[in-house]
Specification:
The protein is mainly α. Helix content is 60%, strand content 0%. The chain has four helices and no strands. Helix 1 packs parallel to helix 3 and helix 2 packs parallel to helix 4.
Length: 122
Amino acid sequence: MSSPSPQASPLLIWWIIWFAITAGLVAISVTIEVRPTPPGSGALQYLPIAPLAAATLVRWLVLPRFTRRAKAFPIFVLGVALAEGSGLLGLFLVPESRNVYLLLALLGLAQFVPVFARRYEA
């Protein structure tokens, strides 16, 4: 007896998740007021770059290795979440550079625009 294979998610789901996470990050950064703090020092101010680098590795090194959409979808969600996490960490950990990290997170999310998902087998 074999276990059923996971069903492929339609491309519309990929677009909905990508758009919702991108819009959510923008909405959070616009609505949440972060009180200014003294400029950070040390490695803490560069911490938001780590999930962004991981998201970039996921997008360009891990996702192209998959051929089936059902197996690539969770990796896509992981990469999008890492890119968003970069923006959220920048917003709360380094409020004096929140716009820089928001822009970097949006660029990280832009690389996950699901136009590449058409190449996967259903």
